Amino acid sequence: MTNMLATADLCDDNSQLEHFQILEPLFQSYGTRAAFHGQITTLKLFEDNSLLKLTLQEPGDQRVLVIDGGGSRRCALMGDNLAQMLIDQDWAGIILYGCIRNCATLASMDVGIKALATHPLKSNKRNHGERDILITFAGVNFKKDHYLYADEDGIIVSEQNLS
């Protein structure tokens, strides 16, 4: 991410926008890519990563996958295998309102993941979940095709492309 896309600078330059939102600082960074941005694709899952795996089989086209995992800290929704799919399919990154696992391996991967925490238990596989719907967590509404910018300072969302 270049300096012109730093979230602090984007906030300074665009905070007057009506549809400009800043996430509550709940997320940890995993992977070597702390900064990423792109248009949003949303998933709503709860302790079941079937739809996540299916979605990561598609080309990401540098989009950001935003996942409402219900804030569950009872299992992980993704680990290093799904992170590799994220890389292979050209997704810009993931915001996960839930947990990841295999964090030691993720620490060396060229991937951008923001999640609540780590958990060693894998998720269920019940084929439940919804895609491209409005989701809300961390004080922000996420809609398909809106724009997300993440770096070491935080995460912001805008209806408009700020880059």
Write a short abstract of this structure.
The chain is an alpha/beta fold and about 160 residues long. Helices cover about 15% and strands about 35% of the residues. The chain has a single domain (about 5-160), classed as Ribonuclease E inhibitor RraA/RraA-like (Glucose Oxidase, domain 1), CATH 3.50.30.40.
Written account of the structure:
It is a single chain. The protein has 163 residues and is an alpha/beta fold. The protein has a single domain (3-158), classed as Ribonuclease E inhibitor RraA/RraA-like (Glucose Oxidase, domain 1, 3-Layer(bba) Sandwich). Helices cover 17% and strands 34% of the residues. The protein has four helices and twelve strands; from the N terminus they run H-E-E-E-H-E-E-H-E-H-E-E-E-E-E-E. The strands form two sheets. Strands 1, 2, 3, 4, 5, 6, 7, 8, 11 and 12 form a ten-stranded mixed beta sheet that branches. Strand 6, helix 4 (103-106) and strand 7 form a beta-alpha-beta unit.
